[in-house]
Amino acid sequence: MLIQYNPKQRLKKPYNPILGEIFRSYWYNPKTDSKTFYIAEQVSHHPPITSFYVSNRKEGFCIYGTILARSKFYGNSVCAIMDGSAKLILLNRGEEYNISLPYANCKGILIGKLTMELGGKVSIDCPKTGYSTEIDFKLKPLLGGLEASNLIEGKIKFAKETVAVLNGKWDGEIVLQDKRENKQITLWKPDLKVIESRLKRFIVPLDEQEDFESEKLWLKVSEAIKISDQNLATEEKCKIETKQREEEFERRAKFIEFKSKFFTYDSINKEWLYNYSDLRPWDPQNDLYQYESNFKILTKTKLNLK
């Protein structure tokens, strides 16, 4: 969500995902010669629900989940709340980790310096192993300096036993204290080497994208924002939303229910599932590489070379 401010008008949100909007991208890791694919779709507009699927079978992980986005305004700040959760699956271990999400807090919308923080408690648990953790993302206090920003602290537990504690900054160094072995280690530190090794994100060229892919769908809005033309951005946004309302009215008139293209709702487990999900461990004897075709994440194997 991008907030736009005009002193003569109210706050505006040029980007507001529409029903059926889709997005895809991937990251290439030269060290493992593998790609991590990301697929997302707006499966509901009221309420606004996004489902996503991330896969890299060669490196042994898959992440999927659903987010219901909502926002709260507090005068000079806005809070983007992500209701929902994600599942991280370690394919070779057969372990599933349930992960909740923090919220984003943006300050300085009207006056002051524009800043963004993460806040709230994030829980992670693995039913198979019995391990869990709760991490507290702390907002900077009113009178705190830079040293008080982006702080986190948490505990790692096995059943009810606290086996380790961690603290630091989510955008800086995080230290873990192992209570069992009574030692301290650096869990995460984004030094220059780490920053330089960040993987580049790739997307499909605009001329090859479908009409409902995010970058193509919002192209004219993005172009207007880049030249600081707020009126044009709002006008282009309204065109997209008007068309969406007309399509919804037509579906209702014909008693047609909207059906998402790439995700299906599992009413038993109450979750949205990617239609082409593949949770098999990587088979180096048969699997060659993963690829994406028309939003389908597939695996090329020695058996299907032809």
TrEMBL record:
Gene Ontology molecular functions: cholesterol binding
Xref: Pfam families: Oxysterol_BP
InterPro entries from the UniProt entry: OSBP_sf (IPR037239), Oxysterol-bd (IPR000648)
Any one of the GO CC terms: cytosol
Coiled-coil positions: none
Family of this protein: Belongs to the OSBP family.
Protein name: Oxysterol-binding protein
Source organism: Brachionus calyciflorus
Organism classification: Eukaryota, Metazoa, Spiralia, Gnathifera, Rotifera
